[in-house]
Amino acid sequence: MKTRVITIGRQFGSGGREIGLRLAEALSVEFYDKQLVTLAAERSGVIPEVFENVDEKAASPWLYAAVDVNGITTYIPTSSNDRLFELQSNLIKEVAAKGDCVIVGRCADYILRNEDIELYNLFVCAPMEIRIARKQAQEKLDENDAKALIKKTDKDRRAYYNYYTNKEWNSPESYDITVNSSRLGITETAILLSKIFAK
Amino acid sequence: MKTRVITIGRQFGSGGREIGLRLAEALSVEFYDKQLVTLAAERSGVIPEVFENVDEKAASPWLYAAVDVNGITTYIPTSSNDRLFELQSNLIKEVAAKGDCVIVGRCADYILRNEDIELYNLFVCAPMEIRIARKQAQEKLDENDAKALIKKTDKDRRAYYNYYTNKEWNSPESYDITVNSSRLGITETAILLSKIFAK
Q: ipTM of this model?
């Protein structure tokens, strides 16, 4: 039987990660998020900080980037983005073939497009003011700093997605279902989605 | 008990109307679409052609518009848009209070935003090439004419929505759930949505 994989793209601060986690719990399936970076680092022998620095970012036009590794500024080749993308792609295909799961971010929708699996691609969004309030509460930031962080992270995610896929990030035509988490809230949105995917 | 109303916005050619119709059938609730224009005309004594001409269009900057009524060019006041919007708003509030239903288009999401009902706002989209193929088959048009018709109708709907609401048409933040009908097709998308709303 084919595995069923649900991928979740998300605007920063929309609660997409939490919704994915709760959906995975409700469906009793595996959940993959940032640990795909750690796994990629383990497999390649690259120190995790190098990959964490380039995770979900498009390749840079520069040859080297300055990264803080245990307080020491270290220069890493910017081709790390492409290397991480390749490693993560292989990992994502492996976990998708292994069993039903939810995968957050990392262009999983695109990476899995030709795999022999049952694939559903979701995207979670929310109005800017809701996301600002959420990030302010989570990160103890003032409004301007929260807004700047959201804009910067969204910009990185968009550049990363549009660079590695032939699709447009945040455009509902790129996904099967886009949910606005602000109306029902995180918990109720996860419940609503789990109704669709309950077997 | 509060009534539950599902509104459906849609890109032209995405199959949003059919999905709404099937969803209403699956849930055994009323379905409202173009008959809101006929009802508005009946109630006001205005001939239906006048309202059909301005349905889902923003108010024009001109005072009069030329309309074909039974082959005779007739000049109608362009304030008909606002008059139709007002009549439709009242009708939409009435039908929403009367019983569970699905309402397609006509800014119903915005009109009902403060009503004491259980409101869900959906939007249906699909990639342009899929919509072109659909309209070509439905209307026996060549590719260029189908594309022109889609662009024109989407433009009208966007202008109408953005004019009468304070929201942005086709933006997933304006709705609760946006579905891309191209992946699962009309029937399966309607089934998927009916799972969410099954009582």
A: 0.82
